[in-house]
Write a structure and sequence with these properties.
By secondary structure, the protein is of the alpha+beta class. It has one domain. It contains 2 helices and 6 strands. A hairpin with a 2-residue loop joins strand 4 and strand 5.
């Protein structure tokens, strides 16, 4: 569990590496400040906020909400 927080810290510091999150390994990732669900850019990280880019399916919305919770970001719809 400690490694997860170290990885998130390093991600926030560099913001350059792709990051796969533990819960949705195959369908959700972060590339730079972009949240990618399947192959679609669905949200953008700006500071301590996660800006959702439109309205999405229930599954994609779960992905966006999960990223906001895991990275402790305020979700902006």
């Amino acid at each position: 569990m400690q490694y997860k927080y170290i990885y998130i810290y390093l991600y926030k510091q560099t913001n350059k590496n792709a990051m796969n999150l533990s819960k949705y390994k195959q369908n959700l990732k972060i590339e730079g400040n972009k949240v990618i669900s399947y192959v679609t850019h669905v949200a953008t990280i700006k500071g301590n906020e996660l800006h959702q880019l439109g309205w999405w399916s229930m599954t994609t919305q779960k992905h966006i909400n999960y990223v906001a919770r895991e990275l402790n970001l305020k979700l902006i719809k």
